[in-house]
Every structure is written in structure tokens, then in C-alpha cells.
Amino acid sequence: MEFDNMTLDEKIYQQVQGLPQSLQEELLDFVQFLRMKAEQREKQEWFDFSLSSALKDMDNEPALYSLTDIKVAFE
Predict the structure, then answer these.
(1) Distance CA 59, CA 5 (A)
(2) Interatomic CA distance for residues 32 and 41, integer angstroms
(3) Mean local confidence (pLDDT), 26-49
(4) End-to-end distance of the chain based on CA atoms, in angstroms?
(5) 18, 26, 56, 64: which has the highest count of C-beta atoms within 10 A?
(6) Torsions phi, psi of 19, nearest 5?
(7) SS3 for the chain, per residue?
(8) Contacts of 68-72 spanning 24+ positions with Cβ under 8 A
């Protein structure tokens, strides 16, 4: 079997065909796990990006409340 001219998809397909049914099912479970993990990672990256974008340049904004305002509200 010549693998040099095959795409990655074709190589994976060829290898999977040689596995028993039970191992193909296990492989499918693993692939689904990897997809879920990748989706979660992508969501986390977007959340981190969104949060950092939202907080960008906040240090340059004037404070809306002083320490005195906070003390008055909670005393």
C-alpha cells in the first residue's frame, strides 16, 4: 500500500478499514471527544479575546467612584 501520494483523509480511512468493528467504534468515540475538546478550546479562546477586548484601555478611564463613596454605601 503506497501512502506517499495519499491525502491525510485517505491515509486515515485506509488505516481505519483494517481495524475490527469494536476498535472502529472506539476510534469514533475518540474522534468525537477530540472535536468536543477543540470546540471548547475555541469557545474559551473567543471568551478570552472578548474579555481582553472589553477591558482594553480601562486603565485610562477616569474612576466613577472614589473610596469614600464605597465607604459611605457600606457603613
Answers:
(1) 55
(2) 14
(3) 92
(4) 79
(5) 26
(6) -90, 150
(7) CCCCCCCHHHHHHHHHHCCCHHHHHHHHHHHHHHHHHHHHHHHHHHHHHHHHHHHCCHHHCCCCCCHHHHHHHHC
(8) none
